Structures are given as structure tokens and as C-alpha cells.
Amino acid sequence: MGSALAGFGFSLGLIVAIGAQNAFVLRQGLRREHVGPVVVICAAADATLMSAGIAGLGVVVAGAPAVLTVVRWAGAAFLFGYAVLAARRALRPAALTPLDHPPAALRATLLACLAFTFLNPHVYLDTVVLLGTVAHQHEDRWAFGAGAAAASLLWFAALGFGARRLAPLLARPAAWRVVDAAIAVVMAALAVSLVSA
Length: 197
Description:
- The radius of gyration is 17 Å and the shape is globular.
- It is built from nine helices and no strands.
- The chain has helices at 2-15, 20-31, 35-55, 57-62, 65-91, 106-118, 121-135, 141-162, 173-196.
- The longest helix is centred in the middle third of the chain and has 27 residues, at 65-91.
């Protein structure tokens, strides 16, 4: 039980930070678009990567810097593109009422979710390398991993499904302008941090 709680706390410390994936989940929650599938993909991806790290893949990833370099540049390009789209939404009043538009296609949403998850080198460093390494320092590494995966699921569910409580606050186009502008800044900053690392 102690290892599971340690994993839960450690995982929350890693994922409760403003990042591309969290911003995407929050936006989906605010728009009430395909929130369940997005939460499932994010939590399942984290659990899979954590398990891989605990099983020993972290050592392999750490020893293959070329793979991380490719992911870093692809991730930076994707994040920059998404930053441009968010900035355009913030600048165009016609695009500032997302709750009035029909939901985006499920397939497009899930592909974007997968891109935000797997084109981010930080996710590999956090889940596979760092969490996998820390898990091995605990008496029961798999209990640590289970706790970490539970924290991920709880966080993404709270972020995605809890966002709808903010909907009344975001009923005005001006509020969406602020949200999309903030998302654009976060995505652009992350893209720059990836290429300058």
C-alpha cells in the first residue's frame, strides 16, 4: 500500500503541470467533445508507458538518443502548428463560440490526442525513464506503477469531466479568446523549449 501511495503522489507531481496534453484535455472538456475517449486514451497511454518503464524499457530509451531527437523535432512541429491554430481561433471572432458548433469528428480528435501524447518527448522521460527508475527503488515496483496509473486516470478524468463546470464562465466569446490565446502561448513555448533543449 505504501508503494502504491508513493506512486500515486509521484505521478500527480509529474502530470499536474500545464502542458500540451493537459491543455488539450481541458479544451475538449470545455467543449464537451469526446471527453470519455480522450480521457481513456491519455490514461491508458500513461499506464502503458509507465509499465514499459517499470519493465525496463527506460534503460533502452535512455540509450537511444536518436529516437528522442526525432520525437523532439516532430513534437515541436506539431505543437507549433497547434499554437498557430489556437492563435487564429483567438484572433477570429467567428471561431470563438465553440459550444455553438457541432463537435469535431471523433477520429480527428483521437488522432490529435495520440499526437499530443506520443509526440512529446517529455512523456517518455517522465513515464518511461523517470517513473520507471523511481519504481525500482520501492519494495513493490508494480504497486508503485499501479498507484501512478491510478493518479493519471484520476487527473485526466477530473480535468476532462470537471472542465464543464467552467462552461458558464466561458459562455462569452471574450473568455474563449483568453483560453485560446493562453493555449497558443503554452504550445508555442513548449515547441521552443523542445527545439532549444
